[in-house]
Amino acid sequence: MSVPKQRDARKLLQTINEYPWYVEKFIEHKKTKKNSPSTLLGYLRDIAFFFRWMMAEGLTSATEMKQLPLSDLNELKKETVESYILYLQESHLYERSVLLTNPTRSSRKEYSDRTINRKVSSLKSLFHYLSALAEDEHGESYLTRNVLAKIELEMTEMTPLARAHAIRAKILIDEEIYQFVDFVHTGFLAHCDTLKKQQYHLKNRDRDTALVAMILSGGFRVSEVVSLNLSDLVMEKNQIKLVRKGKKEDAPFFSDWGKDYLAKYLQARDSYNPPAYEDAVFLAVSPGKPEGHRIDVRSVQKLVKKYAKAFGIPDLSVHKLRHSFATQFLRLNPDPHQLQAQLGHSKIETTMQYAHVLEDALSKAVNRTT
Predict the structure, then answer these.
(1) Domain map of the chain by residue range?
(2) Which residues form the Tyr recombinase domain (predicted)?
(3) pLDDT tens digits along 3-40
(4) Which residue, of 126, 189, 231, 338, has the greatest Cβ tally within 10 A?
(5) What is the DSSP code string of 163-225?
(6) Sign of the torsion formed by the C-alpha atoms of 305, 306, 308 and 310
């Protein structure tokens, strides 16, 4: 199990006792379906948000989530659930943060349709389990009625070309890939308006550049890069050993270009003063942890966002770096099966979404036709 998954598994064990017994049963059921710890934590966050809303709205006499009885779920009306969906759509106008465990600045932003659908989908999954799959000692369902079955999700179907158009402005293509990496290493210094920011950037720029370059040169997931150990590197073959989703062992490649940035960072890795037992490739330090320790996923997501905003592509995320690699790969190597192997996709359909991103190829094909 990767390091982020181990951390999420521990967090799952630490937090599950805050929920009612029937939610624990639901999570145990999902575990049998081989859902990852991060997916299960996502279910818990969405369920917790709904339960806190119920308590805030006086829809239950419970004062803690763990005390919320099944009967209160059984008595929910369709109109009440629709009110919750309206709240999700407008919650940025209110004090949404009071329903969150760790509110951030994003709690003041409007939820996207996708986020709302995910939150409702989590509830639909819980209610379906309680009403149709689970049974008590008498063989009866936990819930006698499933009010969420009456709620339809607003799913907007997108064609591959429409999806491609939406993605295109959020990824890097051709020279933008190299320009962005150069910006991380050199250009961002001009955006550091204090001496403290300059010193912080100079200390971490080799690490940050190597992180970004590795994802762009191999299409790795952020969790895969964060979990990378020194013992996983096969530098002479430009390969890394990792465990993919579904616990599949793999050994994908990275380019010579990415290798150069990685090698430069490895020479500076000891500057983070890691203990002898620390095997993580990418390190971080903090006031509470002055010794070099494994950087976490959230930190990588934040640093990519920081650089992307300064670079002028604020919608570029760490996952979009993976998209950027995949799109560029198919642009230069029109073999989706090779890309499927490199990205670790189990289905070719998942890989083929990248074949549509560059509509200029389709435009040229149309022109050649007539």
Answers:
(1) 3-150, 162-369
(2) 167-367
(3) 667 788 888 888 899 999 999 999 999 988 888 888 99
(4) 126
(5) HHHHHHTTS--THHHHHHHHHHHTGGGGG--SHHHHHHHHHHHHHHHHHHHHHHHH---HHHH
(6) positive
Structure tokens belonging to residue 11? 């967090």
Residue closest to 113 by CA, chosen among 163, 155, 76, 175: 155
Please state which of the four CATH numbers 1.10.443.10, 1.10.60.10, 3.30.200.20, 3.40.250.10 is assigned to the domain occupying 162-369: 1.10.443.10
Residue type, 345: H
Cβ-Cβ contacts under 8 Å for 207 (sequence gap 6 or more): 265, 268, 269, 272, 282, 283, 295
- Residue 104 confidence (pLDDT) above 80: no
Q: Which residues are catalytically annotated?
A: 221, 245, 319, 322, 345, 354
Q: Judge whether 20 and 65 are in contact, CB under 8 Å.
A: yes
Helices (H), 59-112: 70-74, 78-90
pLDDT (mean) for 200-221: 95
Most distant CA atoms of the chain, gap in Å: 71
Number of H helices, E strands in the chain: 16, 6
Whole-model pTM? 0.64
E strand or H helix at 286: strand 283-286
Q: What is the rounded distance in angstroms from the CA atom of residue 366 to the CA atom of residue 370?
A: 7
CA-wise closest residue to 86 among 145, 42, 151: 151
Residue with token string 């490199």: 342
Please determine, for residue 324, whether its predicted confidence score (pLDDT) is greater than 80.
Answer: yes
Nearest to 258 by CA among 225, 300, 305, 223: 225
The mean pLDDT value of the chain amounts to 86
C-alpha 282/C-alpha 177 separation (Å) is 21
Q: Is residue 2 classed as helix, strand or coil in its secondary structure? A: coil
Residue type at 71 in one-letter notation:
S
CB 306 within 8 A of CB 324: no
Q: What long-range pairs does 268-275 form, CB within 8 A, spacing at least 24?
A: 268/206, 268/207, 269/207, 271/203, 272/207
Phi, psi (degrees; rounded to nearest 5) at 243: -115, 120
